[in-house]
Amino acid sequence: MNPFLSFAGIWSLVFSLHYFHILYFYEDFSWKALYSIISGYIAALLITRVFGWNTALMTSDAREDQLRQIRAFLIFAFFIVLAIFFFELAIFKGLPLLWLLTGDSRTYADFGITSLHGFFNALLLFVATVAGGFVIIQFDTRRSAIILGIAVLLMVVLYSRAMIFITLIQLGSVALFILFRKMRTKHYLYSMAIVIFLMFGFGVMGNLRLDCSDVALPKDNPIVDTKTASLPFKSRKALAVSDDSSTSPNDMLAFTSGGCNVYTFMVDNRRADLFRFIPSEFLWFYAYSTGGLNNLIFNLEKADQNYTPRYTLAKLIPTAAYKYLNIEKKYDNFTLAHPAFTVSTAYAGVVSDFGYFGFSFTIPLLLISFAFYKKAISGSFSHIIIYSMLFQSIILSPFIDTVLYSTFLLQMALVYIAGSKAMRMSAIKHRYAQIISNERNQR
């Protein structure tokens, strides 16, 4: 759970996977990118060693005061979430999940009022994470479980897979921090088994989401013989493909049992034999985990920097402001290496603005995370929750930036405000108790 170990682990995995160059269009391995990230990592690590972070353990009375204050804040936020949800439901007269099931052309992106829905998402993440944390520590368990269940149900009916995924990461980190503060070997083995299962399940779900009749075979993939469309996967069956430009996309397909794995079309011919032994469902995890890094490498020498935080701070500006000012909403100036991969890591904005200097973003991310990590060790529930949100940002840093993003900053601010108010109340009570005690002693 240490932020430095977590950051090193996730980026080591992503760079190692990218090094294998499994997808045909991937860029060559970038040592410059690796050294740039390592430099920021080492700088942050040295700062923590020089200055240190010593924190005192939180008293049980102060912790109880904090939990009660955060609970009151949670209930208030929960009712605001419900009010916004029913307000938007009345306006849009439908739900994304129902639209999907009934074949309606509208998607989850068509639900919600601009900027208000972003505020709703921040509150919903706050409610789900805090309620889940209460369930884990068994504080007001019944009410917290009901609130958590309703929050997850809202994410499901809104078909917000990203919200569900982020909530799972945040609650998972809270559980690990509280239940397994001292990780043993068996805990690491259990965690590895769960991760492998989730990786495979992610691929299975990805296959089931797609219908191969809607997917055209890419003609620029060197793995594909355009006359026979033969693919080196035992579990795949290919249809004949004509060189005639009038060939229907439906004639340029490969099928899988149980859905469609589009990434089988993108495997480099030199790596195809790997998937005679490894289930090709793992391709989904490989593509999603390394696609962002590949976009970053693809643009490192191409992006034009203006050395102003135009893209760095773009996610902090509400969408309504972009529309009002009639400004294009862009988070980076990258060119996609492949249209199927639209994320470019947490460094996309800062590198677009500052080039290689943008990698120094690693330093504040790790320092802030480490500061809250040390506070969380002291037993402060609010800091445990905030660290879980920062931990999520570290885990997702190879994909997107969730730190300089208004929705995620707002959920952290809500926890911090609630926790700080509780700490002030506890300090006042403590000083008052000392005054009473001194008066009694003087008598």
How would you sum up this structure, described in words?
The longest helix has 37 residues, at 406-442. It contains 14 helices and two strands. It has 443 residues and is mainly α. Strands 1-2 form a two-stranded antiparallel ribbon.
What descriptors fit this protein?
mainly alpha; 443 residues
In short:
The chain has 443 residues and is mainly α. The chain is built from 14 helices and two strands. The protein has helices at 3-19, 31-51, 60-92, 96-102, 116-137, 141-157, 161-179, 185-209, 282-299, 319-325, 348-354, 362-377, 381-395, 406-442, and strands at 237-238, 254-255.
Write out the strand line-up for the largest beta sheet, numbering strands in chain order: 1-2
Helix share, percent: 55-70%
Q: What structural category characterises the helix and strand content?
A: mainly alpha
> Quick one: overall form?
globular
